[in-house]
Amino acid sequence: MRIGLFATCLGDTLFPDAVRATAVLLARLGHEVVFPPGQTCCGQMHINTGYQREPVPLVRDFAGQFGDASIEAVVIPSGSCAGSVRHQHAIVADRYGDAALRAAVATVAAKTYELSELLVDVLGVTGVGAYFPHRVTYHPTCHSLRMLRVGDRPLRLLRAVDSIDLVELPGADSCCGFGGTFALKNAETSTAMLHDKLAGIATTGAEVCTAGDSSCLMHIGGGLSRARSGTRTLHLARILAATRATPDPFTEATAV
Questions:
Q1: Interacting residues of 56 by C-beta distance below 8 A, sequence separation 6+
Q2: Which among 37, 182, 204, 240 is least surrounded, fewest beta carbons within 10 Å?
Q3: Which stretches make up the Cysteine-rich domain (predicted)?
Q4: ∠141-165-146 over CA atoms, to 5°?
């Protein structure tokens, strides 16, 4: 399959290892990964903050970059950005776009997937040949859980990883408190939610907390680092890309 890879803003600027891991994983599974060089922000942060007219050029660019019929699927290593493309782009196009944009957005949205969705639903795999001999707990991010409804797909992928010690996270479906600008506008509430999440992680004794969104991992990782917990954060793609030959090959720390 020819798969277009969308990096996301955080992937491009702060956490490129999650993007590289996604490409390495899909190539290892025998697929062609293409990276449209003109891609920019998907516009999610504008839309979430109430600016729906302003991201029209971004939505149009995304549809143009990934609308090529030779790209059979689009993968995004982020539940929130995938959710924006699948749901919010149509809202923007309907309100402020034209018929051509609405059609282009619908075409691209129909072939866009978060990583675990692509692997399980489209490629039909759960065992991807990964090896990760560490104690891991999984945080289901809000957009992946509630907007995309990925369900247990990430857990099915993690359970198939060789030598992993996967432990359930208490209160897993509770928000970590990030929410983009929510963490800035409601800092005290965000911090309280983060503390609850960190307390849950602490009970697992996990070496690694993983998730499908770098944004949530940035928030959680910052809390873990400040608490000197010894637990690190890794994007799901990095775990799935690790093998016996290249265990955890992407060494950039995701905790801040």
A1: 92, 93, 96, 97, 101
A2: 37
A3: 4-85, 136-220
A4: 15
End-to-end CA distance of the chain: 36
- Give the per-residue pLDDT at 192: 92
Tokens 């956490």 belong to which residue? 15
| Paired tokens of 62 | 């995304």
Question: Which tokens is 198 given?
Answer: 């960190």
pLDDT digits (tens, 9 = 90+) for 132-166: 999 999 999 999 999 999 999 999 999 999 999 99
Distances from the Cα of 216 to the Cα of 22, 100, 178, angstroms: 18, 34, 6
Check: CB of residue 151 under 8 Å from CB of residue 117: no
What's the chain look like in SS3? CEEEECCCHHHHHCCHHHHHHHHHHHHHCCCEEECCCCCCCCCHHHHHCCCCCCCHHHHHHHHHHHCCCCCCEEEECCHHHHHHHHHHHHHHHHHHCCHHHHHHHHHHHCCEEEHHHHHHHHCCCCCCCCECCCEEEECCCHHHHHHCCCCCHHHHHHHCCECCEEECCCCCCCCCCCCCCHHHHCHHHHHHHHHHHHHHHHHHCCCEEEECCHHHHHHHHHHHHHCCCCCEEEEHHHHHHCCCCCCCCCCCCCCC
Joined together, the tokens standing for residue 235 give: 């994007």
